[in-house]
Specification:
One of its GO terms (biological process) is cell differentiation. The protein is mainly α. Among the domains are: 101 residues, no CATH class; 108 residues, no CATH class; 69 residues, no CATH class. 54% of the residues lie in helices and 0% in strands. The protein contains 20 helices and no strands.
């Protein structure tokens, strides 16, 4: 009976998958994908449409159980990550032990020494680890009962538990607020527990405390469901609201059909009110130009986040966006005017004539100038953070018998999060 119960739980767990690896528009070391979500890959897999066409090297690396080579191959081809992610579940079938291969790929997630120059590479490695665990989940969801038990054996589970127990204390050192809901470390820990079916070995309250650290990630809602934490969500949402994370709270309220308990419009208005309050200098007359600019940026970011949330959840009738958009235009115009004024005020250095006889008007060569003085957009990659924050809603009505909602608090400190190559002003960007 115990074996049957274990099998049933394993199959049910792998029936619900996390959504895709987030696409925090790529930068150094970034591995991002928006085009393909695991559910899309799962559908192709079930229909027999999925096979390794573009990257046969993936099969070879899996056959050889070369976890290090697999990591490097994904990193080298990260520009084509959507295609890679579509083929990896199929390639994993070629491994003697797909689960062991993925576990071995986790080595290096927490290096003994971190070189500041290699931070971007570490971020890329961590994203690859998460993605491989997600791809393994896709493979597991398409196996029969016997194959599933053979692949996720007790020995494999024990290895996964050892890794999770090694990682868990490291999460205690993370600043929940500084992570701004986008912690790769917390995400990897939860994904590890979910993929290898070892949630029963961990306290639900402790797992619930990690949800605010991943609340901005697309996989958050599905991870919560798969880990049996759905009934903990009211407590998680309350924590987010109390700590100025109303955007995340609204997204999760929609994902778990809790909008009657957590009304979205009042939460969004409260978010803007707090943003404007924080954006008001204590002594306006003494505020430096830099401080004033930061104040405007915070309000502008908050307005855009609220508008985006309204549009994603179709709340326009309840919360018209026109006044908000007018305020955005006003702030952007003031920002542009200030930038032009600053550029005009900058002293222009005089250049001597070639013969050294005083100064004269500069004769420029347009083509040459373009070569030596490229536009800003040519010199710097323009990062556009425009992915929607809509968590997938529940696909069915299955529920879990769990304890009461979790209650816990954030650290009062605030900070910036650089985990995915972007700098966010906490807590005004979502």
């Amino acid at each position: 009976m115990l074996l049957f119960f274990s099998i049933t739980n394993a199959l049910e767990k792998h029936r619900k998958l996390s959504s895709g690896q987030p696409a925090d528009n790529g930068d150094n070391g970034e591995l991002s994908v928006e085009e393909k979500q695991p559910e899309d890959i799962k559908s192709s897999f079930e229909n027999g449409n999925l096979e390794v066409k573009s990257y046969p090297q993936l099969v070879k690396l899996c056959e050889e159980m070369d976890s290090e080579g697999l990591q490097k191959f994904i990193s080298d081809n990260r520009k084509n990550l959507p295609a890679l992610k579509e083929e990896i579940p199929w390639a994993l079938k070629a491994a003697a032990s797909p689960a062991r291969l993925v576990l071995e790929s986790l080595e290096g997630f927490y290096p003994s020494e971190v070189d500041g120059k290699k931070d971007a590479n570490l971020l890329g490695l961590r994203r690859t680890c998460i993605m491989l665990m997600e791809c393994l989940s896709v493979l597991l969801s398409n196996l029969d009962m016997v194959s599933l038990l053979a692949l996720i054996s007790e020995d494999i589970k024990e290895q996964a538990k050892l890794i999770a127990e090694e990682w868990k204390p490291k999460l205690d050192a993370l600043d929940m607020d500084a992570s701004n809901g986008n912690s790769l470390e917390a995400h990897a820990f939860l994904q590890l527990i979910d993929t290898f079916g070892i949630a029963s070995g961990f306290n639900e309250e402790e797992l619930s405390r990690l949800i605010p650290m991943v609340s901005r990630r697309r996989q958050a809602a599905d991870l919560c469901r798969s880990l049996g934490l759905s009934e903990k969500m009211p407590g998680v949402i309350e924590v987010l609201v109390k700590n100025g994370r109303q955007i995340d709270a609204v997204n999760l309220a929609f994902a778990f059909e809790l909008t009657e308990q957590f009304s979205p419009v009042p939460l969004l208005k409260s978010y803007l009110k707090e943003a404007r309050k924080a954006s008001s200098p204590v002594k306006p007359g003494n505020a430096s130009p830099t401080a004033q600019t930061e104040v405007s940026e915070r309000e502008l970011t908050a307005l855009k986040a609220v508008i985006k949330c309204i549009e994603e959840h179709n709340l326009e009738e309840q919360y018209p966006v026109d006044p908000l958009q007018k305020r955005v235009l006003l702030l952007e115009k003031a920002k542009a005017d200030k930038k032009r004024a600053t550029e005009v005020a900058k002293p222009q250095p005089k250049r001597p004539r070639a013969n050294g006889a005083g100064y004269g008007p500069r004769v420029t060569n347009v083509a040459a100038d373009k070569t030596f003085y490229p536009r800003v957009t040519d010199r710097y990659m323009q990062y556009v953070y425009d992915r929607p924050y809509v968590y997938p809603g529940p696909a069915d009505n299955h529920s879990h018998s769990l304890l009461a909602s979790a209650t816990f608090n954030f650290s009062p400190s605030h900070g910036n999060y650089f985990g995915n190559g972007y700098q966010y002003q906490t807590p005004y960007l979502h």
